[in-house]
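Q: what sequence does this backbone want?
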């Protein structure tokens, strides 16, 4: 998939604020601070389109970005940040579940995991929920620039083992610093959009 244009569309706090035009979309999910917003900026070749922060909990709403005028990339709030007050956490969780559980245009979720860390029980729960909701999912191991090549491979093996992934499950090594994995991930997104988008009606009928 080639990125021609990208712009911020809106932030949604409730499902009735999600776009309803049926354009296909890909969502980026994962723990707070794992690098979702940074990855989105890297994919879209834009420095600061999605807001990033060294402080976890930066993204609190469901943010929609229009890409190439025909699909959406969706930046979701992260889970698992201990210092957020419980009511705020619950509101985030509710919004995330409302989004993932009932979103017809959602063609693909990218579940981000830090290549340096063992996946958490919440990561495992998220993967399970994506499966239950039948959302096709690709896993992404982030921040590989902080590791040597062999360390990154070991990190990915650990992710596979801890989550009990099938041999054919794809885990894309990714870095927003070096751009590693950008093309591979964009190709996966593009394929998923094509597979599930009905062909346009024949012209002239
Ligand atoms: P929330 O919005 O809080 O859920 O976080 P997020 O998952 O969107 O993370 P964000 O992209 O804001 O990145 C969090 C921190 O990690 C920032 O300080 C980023 O600069 C840093 N970061 C993100 N991706 C990478 C990466 O690939 N390599 C390195 N070295 N740092 C990264
Ligand atoms: Mg974010």
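A:
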């Amino acid at each position: 998939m080639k990125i021609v244009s990208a712009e911020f569309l809106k932030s949604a706090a409730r499902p009735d604020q999600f776009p309803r035009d049926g354009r296909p979309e890909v969502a980026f999910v994962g723990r707070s601070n794992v690098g979702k917003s940074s990855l989105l900026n890297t994919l879209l070749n834009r420095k600061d389109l999605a807001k990033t922060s060294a402080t976890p909990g930066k993204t609190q709403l469901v943010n929609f970005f229009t890409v190439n005028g025909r699909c959406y990339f969706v930046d979701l709030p992260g889970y698992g940040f201990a210092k957020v007050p419980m009511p705020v956490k619950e509101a985030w969780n509710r919004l995330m579940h409302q989004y993932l559980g009932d979103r017809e245009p959602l063609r693909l979720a990218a579940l981000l995991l830090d290549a340096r860390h063992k996946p958490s029980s919440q990561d495992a729960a998220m993967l399970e929920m994506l499966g239950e909701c039948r959302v096709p999912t690709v896993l992404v191991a982030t921040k590989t620039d902080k590791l040597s090549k062999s360390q990154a491979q070991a990190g990915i093996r650990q992710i596979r083992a801890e989550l009990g992934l099938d041999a054919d499950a794809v885990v894309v090594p990714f870095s927003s610093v070096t751009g590693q994995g950008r093309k591979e991930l964009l190709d996966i997104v593009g394929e998923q959009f094509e597979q599930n988008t009905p062909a346009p009606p024949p012209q002239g009928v």
